[in-house]
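Question thread 4412

I'm putting together a teaching handout and wanted feedback from people who do this every day. The idea is simple: show students a protein as raw sequence, then show them the structure tokens that encode its fold, then repeat with a second protein so they can compare. Below is the first pair exactly as I plan to print it.
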Amino acid sequence: MGVTRHGDHLVKLTRQGWVNCYLVVEEDGITVVDTGLPGTAQRIVRAANEAGGEIRRIALTHAHGDHVGSVEKLHEEVPTAEVLISGRDVRFLRGDKSIDPDEPQSKPRGSYPKVDIEPTRLLSPGDRVGSLEVVASPGHTPGHVAYLDTRDRTLIAGDAFQTLGGIAVSGKIRPLFPFPGMATWDKPTAVASARQLRALDPSRLAVGHGRVIESPAAEMDRAIADAA
């Protein structure tokens, strides 16, 4: 698994060259953002040990299988860690793929595995996860969230953007890596969320698939214009 450090607080873990999860280093330990594919848990624990902290929180951006694939095993490895997901996407973990009447009536796409674990906390926009602020970013899934590090304005955007195969807003198909686009629930909602994330003026963009971008404003603008 590839391990790279970005700034003072962020460690990117990359499996098979295309699935990222993140360690956010805090004073009290480490927040893991997303857990990658099945079979990643022990690698995450080793990376956290090497980063010098105990895992305190496991925060999920959304419920697709390449983001929650190791959450059960990671919780077994660190049972004292909080497990956090949005109050909307937790329904997918329980096998409920229904769409609410007030949501766009698009079909949920992608892999939503049932997860035999009950989150310790359900997240709403504005909540804090250590130094991270929860930011609503629906579109890829109905309850997708991003996390903004309030210390340095790093934005961990999950699949709201991708940078593998070229930067793109969720829902825009990139032929070199089409999967995030193909797995997007509602493209107009995803574009609206991308604009809201851009308005945060992040210093760094970290995504579920692809490279981390420093000073990402121009590239985010280009991706939004392309998607719109």
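The second pair follows. I'd like the answer to focus on this one:
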Amino acid sequence: MGRVYIKKEVCIGCHLCELYCQLQHSRSTDLIKAFKRESMRPSPRLRVEEKEAVSFSVRCQHCDEAPCVYACLSGALTRDSKTGLVKVDEERCIGCWTCLLVCPIGAISRDTAEKKVLKCDLCQGEDVPACVANCPNEALIYVEVQDESHSTEGKVIAMIQ
């Protein structure tokens, strides 16, 4: 499974990760059409937090013990056994927002028009998530982690810092 890591010291808060996430999840995947011509403007699956000189993107971390999966009343949030991703079945989502309440990092958002939840899906089907591929300062890094038990994450975080 892939993981996105943040180098917050080089994030400039440009919000391009949000823009390209929106574009990736639009119907047309064309910049002009997605933002000017689509009847419903696409929503990003991540957000940029800014506080003075520090900024960084917040997205679903696909937690090992994902509270959102346990809290989901309809069973719309599940973990894919092959990829390890926490996925949303939009047909089953009833828009109760319980997952929003229990997410420890606030990475799940609401699509109020559709009354469904939105969360990062790591741009499945792409080699690298759109937010990472289009970050101008390389503040986002995508790393494929094969076995979480070997603590590759610690090595990558040390490398980033």
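Top answer:
Good format. For the second protein you could add a caption like this: Residues 16-24 form the longest helix (9 residues). Confidence is low (pLDDT under 50) at residues 149-159.
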